[in-house]
Design a protein that fits this description.
The complex is a heterodimer of chains A (306) and B (267). With 306 residues, chain A is α/β, with parallel strands linked by helices. Helix content of chain A is 37%, strand content 27%. Classes of the chains: A alpha/beta (306), B mainly alpha (267).
Protein backbone atom coordinates (compact mmCIF):
# COMPACT_ATOMS: atom_id res chain seq x y z
CA UNK A 1 0.00 0.00 0.00
CA UNK A 2 1.18 3.52 -0.79
CA UNK A 3 1.17 5.65 2.31
CA UNK A 4 0.97 9.41 2.08
CA UNK A 5 2.34 10.10 5.55
CA UNK A 6 4.29 7.74 7.78
CA UNK A 7 5.39 8.41 11.33
CA UNK A 8 7.64 6.11 13.30
CA UNK A 9 8.36 6.72 16.97
CA UNK A 10 7.97 10.42 16.26
CA UNK A 11 8.56 12.86 19.11
CA UNK A 12 8.71 16.62 19.20
CA UNK A 13 9.45 18.78 22.21
CA UNK A 14 9.47 22.55 22.58
CA UNK A 15 12.17 22.83 25.19
CA UNK A 16 10.55 21.18 28.20
CA UNK A 17 7.08 21.28 26.69
CA UNK A 18 5.75 18.12 25.10
CA UNK A 19 4.40 18.39 21.58
CA UNK A 20 4.32 14.78 20.42
CA UNK A 21 5.55 11.71 22.25
CA UNK A 22 6.61 8.54 20.43
CA UNK A 23 3.86 8.58 17.83
CA UNK A 24 3.63 5.98 15.04
CA UNK A 25 1.03 5.70 12.31
CA UNK A 26 0.52 5.42 8.55
CA UNK A 27 -1.91 7.58 6.61
CA UNK A 28 -3.38 6.41 3.32
CA UNK A 29 -5.31 8.24 0.63
CA UNK A 30 -8.63 10.07 0.97
CA UNK A 31 -9.63 12.41 3.78
CA UNK A 32 -7.97 11.75 7.12
CA UNK A 33 -9.04 13.43 10.33
CA UNK A 34 -6.59 14.35 13.08
CA UNK A 35 -8.77 14.42 16.17
CA UNK A 36 -8.15 15.25 19.77
CA UNK A 37 -8.74 18.00 22.30
CA UNK A 38 -6.80 21.28 22.35
CA UNK A 39 -3.18 20.58 23.24
CA UNK A 40 -3.32 17.01 21.95
CA UNK A 41 -0.48 17.60 19.48
CA UNK A 42 -2.46 18.07 16.26
CA UNK A 43 -0.87 21.39 15.29
CA UNK A 44 2.61 20.09 16.15
CA UNK A 45 2.04 17.11 13.88
CA UNK A 46 0.84 19.41 11.10
CA UNK A 47 3.86 21.69 11.49
CA UNK A 48 6.09 18.63 11.20
CA UNK A 49 4.25 17.42 8.08
CA UNK A 50 4.54 20.83 6.43
CA UNK A 51 8.27 21.07 7.17
CA UNK A 52 7.99 24.00 9.57
CA UNK A 53 9.75 22.22 12.40
CA UNK A 54 12.03 19.21 12.74
CA UNK A 55 11.26 16.15 14.86
CA UNK A 56 13.18 15.88 18.15
CA UNK A 57 13.45 12.13 17.53
CA UNK A 58 11.90 9.47 15.34
CA UNK A 59 10.98 9.87 11.71
CA UNK A 60 8.23 11.46 9.68
CA UNK A 61 7.92 10.89 5.95
CA UNK A 62 5.54 12.61 3.55
CA UNK A 63 5.37 10.97 0.11
CA UNK A 64 8.33 8.89 1.31
CA UNK A 65 10.63 11.82 2.13
CA UNK A 66 11.41 14.07 5.06
CA UNK A 67 9.61 17.40 4.60
CA UNK A 68 12.07 19.70 6.48
CA UNK A 69 13.87 21.94 3.94
CA UNK A 70 12.63 19.72 1.12
CA UNK A 71 11.27 21.81 -1.81
CA UNK A 72 10.28 18.68 -3.77
CA UNK A 73 7.87 17.61 -1.00
CA UNK A 74 6.66 21.12 -0.14
CA UNK A 75 5.71 21.66 -3.79
CA UNK A 76 3.23 18.77 -3.42
CA UNK A 77 1.65 20.07 -0.22
CA UNK A 78 -0.97 22.77 0.20
CA UNK A 79 -1.34 24.12 3.72
CA UNK A 80 -4.16 26.06 5.33
CA UNK A 81 -3.13 27.27 8.81
CA UNK A 82 -5.38 27.46 11.85
CA UNK A 83 -4.86 31.13 12.61
CA UNK A 84 -6.77 33.96 11.01
CA UNK A 85 -3.74 36.04 10.12
CA UNK A 86 -3.54 37.06 6.48
CA UNK A 87 -2.15 40.08 4.64
CA UNK A 88 -5.23 42.13 5.47
CA UNK A 89 -4.39 45.21 3.41
CA UNK A 90 -4.31 43.25 0.17
CA UNK A 91 -6.95 42.23 -2.33
CA UNK A 92 -7.40 38.45 -2.48
CA UNK A 93 -6.31 38.27 -6.11
CA UNK A 94 -3.07 40.15 -5.39
CA UNK A 95 -2.27 38.01 -2.38
CA UNK A 96 -2.97 34.77 -4.21
CA UNK A 97 -1.01 35.97 -7.23
CA UNK A 98 2.12 36.57 -5.17
CA UNK A 99 1.76 33.18 -3.45
CA UNK A 100 1.18 31.50 -6.82
CA UNK A 101 4.46 32.92 -8.08
CA UNK A 102 6.14 31.71 -4.92
CA UNK A 103 4.84 28.25 -5.77
CA UNK A 104 6.56 28.33 -9.13
CA UNK A 105 3.65 29.47 -11.30
CA UNK A 106 4.83 31.90 -14.01
CA UNK A 107 3.88 35.57 -13.68
CA UNK A 108 1.60 35.43 -16.73
CA UNK A 109 -0.44 32.50 -15.44
CA UNK A 110 -0.57 33.51 -11.78
CA UNK A 111 -3.59 35.77 -12.13
CA UNK A 112 -5.79 33.29 -14.03
CA UNK A 113 -4.85 30.49 -11.63
CA UNK A 114 -5.67 32.72 -8.64
CA UNK A 115 -9.10 33.49 -10.10
CA UNK A 116 -9.66 29.80 -10.72
CA UNK A 117 -8.78 28.99 -7.11
CA UNK A 118 -11.23 31.62 -5.82
CA UNK A 119 -13.93 30.11 -8.01
CA UNK A 120 -13.13 26.63 -6.70
CA UNK A 121 -13.64 27.76 -3.11
CA UNK A 122 -16.82 29.54 -4.20
CA UNK A 123 -15.87 33.06 -3.17
CA UNK A 124 -18.29 35.27 -5.03
CA UNK A 125 -16.67 37.56 -7.63
CA UNK A 126 -18.29 40.65 -6.14
CA UNK A 127 -15.98 40.26 -3.11
CA UNK A 128 -12.76 40.11 -5.13
CA UNK A 129 -12.33 43.88 -5.12
CA UNK A 130 -12.49 44.13 -1.32
CA UNK A 131 -9.47 43.96 0.97
CA UNK A 132 -9.10 40.63 2.81
CA UNK A 133 -9.19 42.54 6.11
CA UNK A 134 -12.82 43.45 5.49
CA UNK A 135 -13.88 39.82 4.98
CA UNK A 136 -16.01 37.76 7.33
CA UNK A 137 -14.45 34.73 8.98
CA UNK A 138 -16.05 32.37 6.48
CA UNK A 139 -14.83 34.38 3.48
CA UNK A 140 -11.33 34.56 4.92
CA UNK A 141 -11.40 30.82 5.42
CA UNK A 142 -12.20 30.40 1.73
CA UNK A 143 -9.30 32.64 0.69
CA UNK A 144 -7.00 30.65 2.98
CA UNK A 145 -8.23 27.47 1.35
CA UNK A 146 -7.74 29.01 -2.11
CA UNK A 147 -4.08 29.75 -1.40
CA UNK A 148 -3.61 26.11 -0.39
CA UNK A 149 -4.86 24.75 -3.72
CA UNK A 150 -3.20 27.28 -6.06
CA UNK A 151 -0.36 25.03 -7.15
CA UNK A 152 -2.49 21.89 -7.55
CA UNK A 153 -0.99 20.05 -4.60
CA UNK A 154 -1.41 16.30 -4.14
CA UNK A 155 -1.94 16.70 -0.41
CA UNK A 156 -3.82 19.45 1.40
CA UNK A 157 -3.33 19.88 5.13
CA UNK A 158 -5.87 21.96 7.01
CA UNK A 159 -5.49 22.93 10.66
CA UNK A 160 -8.88 23.44 12.30
CA UNK A 161 -10.53 24.87 9.16
CA UNK A 162 -14.02 24.84 10.69
CA UNK A 163 -13.10 27.00 13.69
CA UNK A 164 -15.55 29.84 14.13
CA UNK A 165 -17.67 28.98 11.11
CA UNK A 166 -21.45 28.74 11.29
CA UNK A 167 -23.06 25.38 10.42
CA UNK A 168 -23.69 26.45 6.82
CA UNK A 169 -20.09 27.58 6.41
CA UNK A 170 -18.87 24.26 7.82
CA UNK A 171 -21.02 22.34 5.42
CA UNK A 172 -19.76 24.40 2.47
CA UNK A 173 -16.11 23.91 3.42
CA UNK A 174 -16.86 20.19 3.89
CA UNK A 175 -18.37 20.02 0.40
CA UNK A 176 -15.32 21.74 -1.11
CA UNK A 177 -13.05 19.22 0.61
CA UNK A 178 -15.14 16.34 -0.71
CA UNK A 179 -14.86 17.78 -4.23
CA UNK A 180 -11.08 18.02 -3.81
CA UNK A 181 -10.95 14.42 -2.63
CA UNK A 182 -12.98 13.33 -5.63
CA UNK A 183 -10.47 15.04 -7.89
CA UNK A 184 -7.73 12.83 -6.45
CA UNK A 185 -6.28 15.14 -3.80
CA UNK A 186 -5.48 13.70 -0.39
CA UNK A 187 -6.71 15.75 2.54
CA UNK A 188 -5.59 15.81 6.17
CA UNK A 189 -7.82 17.86 8.41
CA UNK A 190 -7.57 18.51 12.13
CA UNK A 191 -10.35 19.39 14.53
CA UNK A 192 -11.14 19.24 18.20
CA UNK A 193 -14.85 19.15 17.35
CA UNK A 194 -15.14 15.51 16.48
CA UNK A 195 -18.61 15.41 14.97
CA UNK A 196 -17.43 17.85 12.29
CA UNK A 197 -15.17 15.20 10.87
CA UNK A 198 -17.46 12.23 11.28
CA UNK A 199 -19.17 12.48 7.90
CA UNK A 200 -16.11 13.85 6.13
CA UNK A 201 -13.23 11.51 6.89
CA UNK A 202 -12.59 7.92 6.03
CA UNK A 203 -9.58 7.51 8.36
CA UNK A 204 -8.63 9.02 11.68
CA UNK A 205 -5.61 9.59 13.89
CA UNK A 206 -6.71 10.09 17.48
CA UNK A 207 -4.32 12.14 19.57
CA UNK A 208 -4.31 13.04 23.24
CA UNK A 209 -1.56 14.51 25.42
CA UNK A 210 0.91 14.19 22.56
CA UNK A 211 0.30 10.49 22.02
CA UNK A 212 -1.49 8.70 19.16
CA UNK A 213 -4.22 6.67 20.81
CA UNK A 214 -5.40 4.97 17.63
CA UNK A 215 -5.37 5.34 13.86
CA UNK A 216 -7.20 3.92 10.87
CA UNK A 217 -10.87 3.50 10.04
CA UNK A 218 -13.46 3.89 12.80
CA UNK A 219 -14.59 0.28 12.37
CA UNK A 220 -11.00 -0.98 12.64
CA UNK A 221 -10.34 1.11 15.73
CA UNK A 222 -13.51 -0.26 17.36
CA UNK A 223 -12.44 -3.83 16.65
CA UNK A 224 -9.06 -3.17 18.23
CA UNK A 225 -10.63 -1.99 21.50
CA UNK A 226 -10.98 -4.76 24.04
CA UNK A 227 -14.31 -4.95 25.89
CA UNK A 228 -15.91 -2.55 23.43
CA UNK A 229 -19.68 -2.75 23.75
CA UNK A 230 -22.33 -0.81 21.95
CA UNK A 231 -24.35 1.62 24.00
CA UNK A 232 -27.99 2.41 23.25
CA UNK A 233 -30.26 5.00 24.85
CA UNK A 234 -33.96 4.14 24.84
CA UNK A 235 -36.72 6.53 25.93
CA UNK A 236 -39.65 4.48 27.14
CA UNK A 237 -42.59 4.57 29.55
CA UNK A 238 -41.26 1.50 31.43
CA UNK A 239 -37.47 1.72 31.52
CA UNK A 240 -36.96 -0.51 34.58
CA UNK A 241 -39.30 -3.22 33.31
CA UNK A 242 -37.65 -3.24 29.87
CA UNK A 243 -34.18 -3.40 31.42
CA UNK A 244 -35.10 -6.37 33.62
CA UNK A 245 -36.65 -8.14 30.67
CA UNK A 246 -33.49 -7.68 28.56
CA UNK A 247 -31.28 -8.81 31.45
CA UNK A 248 -33.35 -11.98 31.85
CA UNK A 249 -32.70 -12.75 28.17
CA UNK A 250 -28.94 -12.41 28.75
CA UNK A 251 -28.53 -9.69 26.11
CA UNK A 252 -26.94 -6.97 28.24
CA UNK A 253 -23.58 -6.29 29.80
CA UNK A 254 -25.17 -3.62 31.93
CA UNK A 255 -27.82 -0.92 32.10
CA UNK A 256 -28.63 2.44 33.66
CA UNK A 257 -32.05 4.02 34.24
CA UNK A 258 -32.32 7.80 34.28
CA UNK A 259 -35.95 8.91 34.48
CA UNK A 260 -37.62 7.85 31.25
CA UNK A 261 -34.31 6.98 29.66
CA UNK A 262 -32.77 3.54 29.72
CA UNK A 263 -29.13 3.19 28.68
CA UNK A 264 -27.99 -0.34 27.84
CA UNK A 265 -24.63 -1.91 26.96
CA UNK A 266 -25.04 -4.82 24.54
CA UNK A 267 -23.34 -8.21 24.66
CA UNK A 268 -23.95 -9.26 21.05
CA UNK A 269 -25.19 -6.31 18.97
CA UNK A 270 -26.04 -8.31 15.79
CA UNK A 271 -28.41 -10.75 17.51
CA UNK A 272 -29.85 -7.95 19.64
CA UNK A 273 -30.84 -5.89 16.60
CA UNK A 274 -32.35 -8.97 14.97
CA UNK A 275 -34.55 -9.76 17.95
CA UNK A 276 -35.22 -6.20 19.14
CA UNK A 277 -38.85 -6.07 17.83
CA UNK A 278 -39.65 -9.36 19.62
CA UNK A 279 -38.21 -8.04 22.88
CA UNK A 280 -40.45 -5.01 22.65
CA UNK A 281 -43.57 -7.01 21.96
CA UNK A 282 -42.81 -9.40 24.85
CA UNK A 283 -42.21 -6.56 27.27
CA UNK A 284 -45.20 -4.47 26.14
CA UNK A 285 -43.30 -1.23 26.73
CA UNK A 286 -43.94 1.89 24.68
CA UNK A 287 -40.74 3.15 23.10
CA UNK A 288 -40.54 6.81 22.06
CA UNK A 289 -36.95 7.11 20.93
CA UNK A 290 -33.88 4.90 20.34
CA UNK A 291 -30.37 6.29 19.87
CA UNK A 292 -27.14 4.42 19.30
CA UNK A 293 -24.67 6.35 21.43
CA UNK A 294 -21.55 4.41 20.53
CA UNK A 295 -21.50 4.92 16.78
CA UNK A 296 -20.26 8.51 17.12
CA UNK A 297 -16.64 9.54 16.80
CA UNK A 298 -16.95 11.40 20.08
CA UNK A 299 -17.93 8.26 21.98
CA UNK A 300 -15.14 6.32 20.31
CA UNK A 301 -12.60 8.95 21.27
CA UNK A 302 -13.89 9.09 24.84
CA UNK A 303 -13.67 5.32 25.09
CA UNK A 304 -10.10 5.22 23.79
CA UNK A 305 -8.98 8.15 25.92
CA UNK A 306 -10.14 6.39 29.11
CA UNK B 1 1.43 1.09 17.62
CA UNK B 2 4.51 0.46 15.58
CA UNK B 3 5.07 0.68 11.87
CA UNK B 4 7.86 0.14 9.46
CA UNK B 5 8.75 2.82 6.99
CA UNK B 6 8.64 0.65 3.91
CA UNK B 7 6.02 0.62 1.20
CA UNK B 8 6.00 4.36 0.79
CA UNK B 9 4.26 6.46 -1.80
CA UNK B 10 6.57 6.76 -4.77
CA UNK B 11 8.08 10.17 -4.33
CA UNK B 12 9.79 10.07 -7.70
CA UNK B 13 6.60 9.30 -9.57
CA UNK B 14 5.85 12.94 -10.15
CA UNK B 15 8.35 15.69 -10.81
CA UNK B 16 6.81 19.06 -10.01
CA UNK B 17 7.82 22.61 -10.73
CA UNK B 18 9.95 23.87 -7.88
CA UNK B 19 10.05 27.62 -7.46
CA UNK B 20 13.61 28.85 -7.84
CA UNK B 21 15.22 32.13 -6.83
CA UNK B 22 13.62 34.03 -9.71
CA UNK B 23 10.12 32.90 -8.73
CA UNK B 24 10.82 33.72 -5.08
CA UNK B 25 11.95 37.22 -6.04
CA UNK B 26 8.87 37.71 -8.24
CA UNK B 27 6.47 36.42 -5.58
CA UNK B 28 7.93 38.32 -2.64
CA UNK B 29 8.57 41.36 -4.82
CA UNK B 30 4.94 41.48 -5.96
CA UNK B 31 3.74 41.14 -2.37
CA UNK B 32 6.00 43.96 -1.14
CA UNK B 33 5.27 46.27 -4.06
CA UNK B 34 1.55 45.95 -3.39
CA UNK B 35 2.22 46.75 0.27
CA UNK B 36 4.45 49.68 -0.65
CA UNK B 37 1.71 51.32 -2.67
CA UNK B 38 -1.02 50.68 -0.10
CA UNK B 39 -2.70 53.81 1.24
CA UNK B 40 -1.29 53.15 4.72
CA UNK B 41 2.27 52.97 3.46
CA UNK B 42 1.95 56.04 1.21
CA UNK B 43 0.52 57.99 4.12
CA UNK B 44 3.52 57.03 6.28
CA UNK B 45 5.96 58.11 3.55
CA UNK B 46 4.13 61.43 3.20
CA UNK B 47 4.31 61.98 6.95
CA UNK B 48 8.04 61.26 7.11
CA UNK B 49 8.62 63.53 4.09
CA UNK B 50 6.94 66.41 5.90
CA UNK B 51 9.03 65.80 9.02
CA UNK B 52 12.29 65.72 7.01
CA UNK B 53 11.42 68.97 5.24
CA UNK B 54 10.67 70.53 8.63
CA UNK B 55 13.98 69.31 10.07
CA UNK B 56 15.81 70.78 7.05
CA UNK B 57 14.18 74.15 7.71
CA UNK B 58 15.08 73.97 11.40
CA UNK B 59 18.68 72.74 11.08
CA UNK B 60 19.92 74.58 8.00
CA UNK B 61 20.29 78.34 7.93
CA UNK B 62 19.54 80.08 4.67
CA UNK B 63 22.56 79.93 2.33
CA UNK B 64 24.66 77.80 4.73
CA UNK B 65 26.09 74.99 2.57
CA UNK B 66 28.13 73.50 5.44
CA UNK B 67 25.06 72.99 7.63
CA UNK B 68 23.18 71.47 4.73
CA UNK B 69 25.99 69.01 4.00
CA UNK B 70 26.28 68.01 7.65
CA UNK B 71 22.54 67.36 7.85
CA UNK B 72 22.46 65.51 4.52
CA UNK B 73 25.46 63.26 5.01
CA UNK B 74 26.17 62.91 8.73
CA UNK B 75 22.61 62.80 9.95
CA UNK B 76 20.43 61.65 7.08
CA UNK B 77 22.73 59.24 5.19
CA UNK B 78 24.68 57.89 8.16
CA UNK B 79 21.99 57.85 10.86
CA UNK B 80 18.51 58.04 9.36
CA UNK B 81 19.05 55.67 6.42
CA UNK B 82 20.46 52.87 8.66
CA UNK B 83 17.38 53.18 10.89
CA UNK B 84 15.15 52.91 7.83
CA UNK B 85 17.01 49.77 6.78
CA UNK B 86 16.70 48.34 10.29
CA UNK B 87 12.98 48.93 10.36
CA UNK B 88 12.37 47.67 6.83
CA UNK B 89 14.80 44.76 6.33
CA UNK B 90 14.98 43.76 10.00
CA UNK B 91 11.22 43.51 10.15
CA UNK B 92 10.62 41.94 6.74
CA UNK B 93 10.73 38.26 7.73
CA UNK B 94 10.55 38.88 11.48
CA UNK B 95 7.17 40.58 11.21
CA UNK B 96 5.89 37.68 9.11
CA UNK B 97 7.01 35.37 11.92
CA UNK B 98 5.35 37.58 14.53
CA UNK B 99 2.13 37.79 12.52
CA UNK B 100 2.09 34.05 11.68
CA UNK B 101 1.88 34.94 7.97
CA UNK B 102 5.30 33.33 7.45
CA UNK B 103 3.42 30.01 7.29
CA UNK B 104 2.09 30.97 3.86
CA UNK B 105 5.62 31.59 2.61
CA UNK B 106 7.86 28.92 4.06
CA UNK B 107 5.48 26.02 3.42
CA UNK B 108 5.97 26.59 -0.31
CA UNK B 109 8.68 25.23 -2.54
CA UNK B 110 11.33 28.00 -2.57
CA UNK B 111 14.35 27.29 -0.42
CA UNK B 112 14.45 29.34 2.76
CA UNK B 113 17.67 30.99 1.61
CA UNK B 114 15.84 32.10 -1.54
CA UNK B 115 13.13 33.65 0.61
CA UNK B 116 15.79 35.61 2.50
CA UNK B 117 17.41 36.83 -0.72
CA UNK B 118 14.01 37.76 -2.20
CA UNK B 119 13.07 39.67 0.96
CA UNK B 120 16.45 41.38 0.95
CA UNK B 121 16.09 42.54 -2.65
CA UNK B 122 12.54 43.76 -1.97
CA UNK B 123 13.69 45.63 1.14
CA UNK B 124 16.55 47.26 -0.77
CA UNK B 125 14.21 48.38 -3.58
CA UNK B 126 11.54 49.71 -1.22
CA UNK B 127 14.07 51.53 0.98
CA UNK B 128 15.99 52.92 -2.01
CA UNK B 129 12.76 54.23 -3.52
CA UNK B 130 11.84 55.99 -0.29
CA UNK B 131 15.35 57.32 0.29
CA UNK B 132 15.38 58.73 -3.24
CA UNK B 133 12.14 60.59 -2.54
CA UNK B 134 13.42 61.91 0.81
CA UNK B 135 16.82 62.94 -0.63
CA UNK B 136 15.15 64.78 -3.50
CA UNK B 137 12.79 66.57 -1.13
CA UNK B 138 15.63 67.59 1.19
CA UNK B 139 17.62 68.94 -1.75
CA UNK B 140 14.57 70.78 -3.05
CA UNK B 141 14.18 72.32 0.40
CA UNK B 142 17.91 73.23 0.34
CA UNK B 143 17.40 74.93 -2.99
CA UNK B 144 14.54 76.93 -1.47
CA UNK B 145 16.98 77.88 1.33
CA UNK B 146 19.35 79.24 -1.34
CA UNK B 147 22.14 76.70 -0.75
CA UNK B 148 24.53 77.27 -3.61
CA UNK B 149 25.60 74.52 -5.99
CA UNK B 150 23.30 72.13 -4.17
CA UNK B 151 22.85 69.52 -6.89
CA UNK B 152 26.57 69.10 -7.62
CA UNK B 153 26.79 66.31 -4.98
CA UNK B 154 23.33 64.87 -5.58
CA UNK B 155 24.52 61.89 -7.66
CA UNK B 156 27.30 61.02 -5.23
CA UNK B 157 24.96 61.22 -2.25
CA UNK B 158 22.49 58.91 -3.96
CA UNK B 159 25.26 56.42 -4.73
CA UNK B 160 26.48 56.49 -1.13
CA UNK B 161 22.93 56.00 0.09
CA UNK B 162 22.48 53.04 -2.24
CA UNK B 163 25.57 51.30 -0.86
CA UNK B 164 24.48 52.19 2.66
CA UNK B 165 21.11 50.54 1.97
CA UNK B 166 22.78 47.43 0.50
CA UNK B 167 25.03 46.93 3.51
CA UNK B 168 22.71 48.04 6.30
CA UNK B 169 19.77 46.03 4.92
CA UNK B 170 21.83 42.84 4.95
CA UNK B 171 22.96 43.46 8.53
CA UNK B 172 19.42 44.41 9.55
CA UNK B 173 18.05 41.25 8.00
CA UNK B 174 20.55 39.17 9.97
CA UNK B 175 19.69 40.97 13.21
CA UNK B 176 15.96 40.58 12.47
CA UNK B 177 16.35 36.85 12.03
CA UNK B 178 18.38 36.60 15.22
CA UNK B 179 15.85 38.21 17.51
CA UNK B 180 12.41 39.75 17.64
CA UNK B 181 13.90 42.72 19.46
CA UNK B 182 15.81 43.68 16.34
CA UNK B 183 15.28 47.43 16.75
CA UNK B 184 16.97 47.42 20.16
CA UNK B 185 19.82 45.14 19.08
CA UNK B 186 20.24 47.15 15.87
CA UNK B 187 20.57 50.43 17.77
CA UNK B 188 23.08 48.85 20.17
CA UNK B 189 25.07 47.58 17.18
CA UNK B 190 24.93 51.06 15.65
CA UNK B 191 26.17 52.74 18.82
CA UNK B 192 29.05 50.30 19.30
CA UNK B 193 30.19 49.63 15.73
CA UNK B 194 28.91 52.40 13.48
CA UNK B 195 29.40 55.29 15.87
CA UNK B 196 32.08 53.87 18.17
CA UNK B 197 34.46 51.57 16.29
CA UNK B 198 34.17 53.50 12.99
CA UNK B 199 35.95 56.46 14.68
CA UNK B 200 38.87 54.39 15.94
CA UNK B 201 41.93 55.12 13.75
CA UNK B 202 42.81 51.43 13.37
CA UNK B 203 42.07 48.89 10.66
CA UNK B 204 39.35 47.57 12.96
CA UNK B 205 37.14 50.43 11.76
CA UNK B 206 36.78 48.58 8.46
CA UNK B 207 34.09 46.40 10.03
CA UNK B 208 31.80 49.42 10.13
CA UNK B 209 29.71 50.42 7.14
CA UNK B 210 29.94 54.11 8.02
CA UNK B 211 33.74 53.96 7.63
CA UNK B 212 33.32 52.74 4.04
CA UNK B 213 30.64 55.32 3.34
CA UNK B 214 32.96 58.03 4.61
CA UNK B 215 35.68 56.60 2.36
CA UNK B 216 33.30 56.94 -0.57
CA UNK B 217 32.63 60.53 0.35
CA UNK B 218 36.19 61.33 1.35
CA UNK B 219 37.70 61.70 4.85
CA UNK B 220 36.62 60.20 8.16
CA UNK B 221 32.90 60.35 8.71
CA UNK B 222 33.14 62.62 11.75
CA UNK B 223 35.40 65.17 10.14
CA UNK B 224 34.42 66.12 6.68
CA UNK B 225 31.89 66.24 3.97
CA UNK B 226 34.36 66.74 1.24
CA UNK B 227 35.22 65.38 -2.13
CA UNK B 228 38.95 65.49 -1.43
CA UNK B 229 40.59 62.08 -0.83
CA UNK B 230 37.46 60.16 -1.72
CA UNK B 231 37.89 56.59 -2.85
CA UNK B 232 34.48 55.52 -4.12
CA UNK B 233 35.67 52.14 -5.36
CA UNK B 234 37.22 50.99 -2.07
CA UNK B 235 34.26 52.31 -0.12
CA UNK B 236 31.78 50.54 -2.40
CA UNK B 237 33.81 47.33 -2.19
CA UNK B 238 33.82 47.47 1.60
CA UNK B 239 30.05 47.96 1.71
CA UNK B 240 29.51 45.14 -0.79
CA UNK B 241 31.65 42.72 1.23
CA UNK B 242 29.76 43.56 4.43
CA UNK B 243 26.44 43.13 2.57
CA UNK B 244 27.50 39.73 1.22
CA UNK B 245 28.63 38.50 4.64
CA UNK B 246 25.45 39.74 6.34
CA UNK B 247 23.17 38.24 3.72
CA UNK B 248 25.02 34.92 3.68
CA UNK B 249 24.81 34.65 7.45
CA UNK B 250 21.09 35.52 7.34
CA UNK B 251 20.47 32.76 4.75
CA UNK B 252 22.29 30.15 6.84
CA UNK B 253 20.50 31.22 10.01
CA UNK B 254 17.01 31.20 8.49
CA UNK B 255 17.56 27.85 6.77
CA UNK B 256 18.59 26.08 9.94
CA UNK B 257 16.86 27.78 12.83
CA UNK B 258 13.43 26.64 13.98
CA UNK B 259 11.20 29.60 14.72
CA UNK B 260 8.14 29.60 16.90
CA UNK B 261 5.59 32.07 15.68
CA UNK B 262 3.85 34.85 17.52
CA UNK B 263 5.41 34.67 20.94
CA UNK B 264 8.93 35.62 19.87
CA UNK B 265 10.45 32.49 21.35
CA UNK B 266 12.71 30.32 19.26
CA UNK B 267 13.97 26.85 19.85
Amino acid sequence: MNYIVQAKELSCFYGMVLGLNNVSFNLGSGITGLVGPNGAGKSTLIKLMTGQIKPSSGQLLVFGQKPWNNPQILSRIGYCPEHEYVHKEMLPIDWLRSLAMLSGIPFGKAQSISKEALKTVKLSERHWKKKIGSYSKGMRQRVKLAQAILHEPKLIILDEPMNGLDPMGRQEIGNILKDLKNSGIHVIISSHILHELESLCNDFVMLNWGRALASGRQSKIRKEIKNWSEQIAIRTNQPQQLAEHLVSLDTLKGYLVEGEELIIWLKRPESFYQKWPEYLVDCEAEVYDVQNKSQTLTSLFERIAQ
Amino acid sequence: MTTTLTDTADSTAEQRTIAGLKQAILGIGYLRMKEMFSSKSLLAVSGVSMILILITFITVASGNAGQFQTWMFHLFALRFVPLMCLERAGGSLRNEIKDYTIEYLWTRSPKKSHLVIAEYISSVIVTAFRVFIFTTLIHATGMYLEITDIFSMFGRILMIELFAILAYSALAMLIGLLTGKYMILGVIYGLIVEIGISQVPLNLNKISVSHHLATMMGGPSSLAYTHAGANPFMGALGCTVIAAIGLGAACILFSNKQYRMGNEKES
